[in-house]
Amino acid sequence: MTETRHLTVPIDRPAAAVYAYVRDPAHLPAWAAGLAAGIRRERGEWIADSPMGPVLVRFVPVNEYGVLDHDVVLPDGTTTTNPVRVLADGAGSEVVFTLRRRPTMTGDEWAADVAAVTADLGVLRRLLEAG
């Protein structure tokens, strides 16, 4: 079994608005520093400039369920699937990011990954609640 953490953040915005924002890969550099310092389209694919080098980002198709799962293909070819959900919560929403520990990660690398995603979710909350 892979070690897993469900990281969540409440956002005082309707779920549809949060989903639409997060769904657009062009927004990743604004809130997901742990993944993308920049992003561009190449041959129909989204390439993010990550701390690990250039990575390919592929989201599941648009859906009505708030599912934002996405694969990140690392420079070494390893694919990491990141389950993400936007859940309606009254007039607001909750984003749930399931983070899975890669088998090669040390304890310090895992802690840093958890901290980076937690920080990214906080930035997402601040951006969406300010706009």
CATH topology: Alpha-D-Glucose-1,6-Bisphosphate, Chain A, domain 4
Largest sheet, spatial ordering of strands: 2-3-4-5-6
Specify the biggest β-sheet.
Answer: 5 strands, antiparallel
* CATH architecture title: 2-Layer Sandwich
Poorly predicted regions: none
Shape: globular
Question: What is the residue-averaged pLDDT?
Answer: 94
Relevant CATH superfamily: START domain
> What is the CATH class?
Alpha Beta
Roughly what percent helix?
Answer: 25-40%
Measured distance between first and last alpha carbons: 40 Å
Instruction: List how many beta strands DSSP finds.
Output: 8
What share of residues are in beta strands?
35-45%
Number of domains: 1
- Based on CA atoms alone, the radius of gyration comes out at 14 Å
Count of helical regions: 3
Order of helices and strands: EHHEEEEEEEH
Brief digest:
With 131 residues, the protein is of the alpha+beta class.
Written account of the structure:
By secondary structure, this protein is of the alpha+beta class. Helix content is 28%, strand content 37%. The strands form two sheets. A five-stranded antiparallel β-sheet has the order 2-3-4-5-6, with no helix packed on it. A hairpin with a 5-residue loop joins strand 5 (70-73) and strand 6 (79-82). The model has no long low-confidence stretch (mean pLDDT 94).
Features of the shown structure:
3 helices, alpha+beta, 37% strand, three-stranded antiparallel sheet, five-stranded antiparallel sheet, single chain, Alpha-D-Glucose-1,6-Bisphosphate, Chain A, domain 4, 131 residues
Strand and helix layout:
Elements lengths: L3 E8 L3 H9 L4 H4 L6 E5 L2 E6 L2 E7 L10 E4 L5 E4 L1 E6 L2 E9 L6 H24 L1
